[in-house]
Amino acid sequence: MNTTINVSERRKAQFIATGLTAAADMTTVNRLMECATFVNVTPPDILFVEGDDARHFYSVVTGFVRLFRQNHEGREADIRICGPGDTFGDELVFGGDACRYSAQAAENATLVCYDLAKVRELANNDDGSLARVLAISLSAQLREAVDCVADDRLNTALQRVAHYLLDQCPEDTEPVTFRLACRKSLLAGKLGLAPEALSRAFGTLKTLGVNVHGRTIEITDIEALKRL
Question: What pLDDT band is residue 5 in, cutting at 50, 70 and 90?
Fold first, then answer.
């Protein structure tokens, strides 16, 4: 992990824009900033490993971080791909002394790193403002997790990819061209797919007007995707 970055006005603005602090008043934001530092990470940096003593939690400013678990045979499974604005590990503020999963930089990333002990102390001594901020963050993560489980259970791999692409369309006109926010291997993990399953889905979607050129996506028939 690279050295800590000095906090500039631009960094402060990015700090305020993270999902954790977006709904906070400035008093709470300033208190949280006293518990935080900015760090740069690059693949394959490991932030923490499942079972480690919990010391920090994080918000993503730029880049992506993969959260995963590994079984005794060494097989890994992504459980969440965190991008700009996402916070992870904050569930430990209200209890738990060990990390429940591992976290690894998936792309070059800038993170806000919170000192868990300091945030716990702050949460125990303020008027409840920080607890509300944390509750909002955790509630959003729970809703996202429920949606992901439902999507995994109710939709095929092809439908999951099609729905994701429709969500990324900047407008409802054709043709639509946009660039994937992350590389395809990360997108596969985000959608709960193996990379080869994502490749097969893209191959099938080509017949429905989806052209893939690296990370650039062109959609010529939005209605065909909606019908899946």
Answer: very low
Close Cβ partners of 97 (under 8 Å, ≥ 6 residues apart): 53, 54
Order of strands across the sheet that contains 87-88: 4-5, 36-41, 109-115, 56-62, 87-88
* Residue in the structure block whose two tokens are 């990333």: 109
Fold agreement (4-153, 155-226): no
Would you state the structure tokens that stand for residue 39, as one six-digit string? 């760090």
Please give the CATH superfamily to which domain 4-153 belongs: Jelly Rolls (2.60.120.10)
| Residue 39 and residue 7 in contact, taking contact as beta carbons nearer than 8 Å | no
Domain spans in the chain, listed from the N-terminal domain onward: 4-153, 155-226
Q: Does domain 155-226 have CATH number 1.10.3720.10?
A: no
Q: Note the Cα 79 to chain centre separation in Å.
A: 10
Residues 116-143: pLDDT tens digits?
999 999 999 888 899 999 999 999 999 9
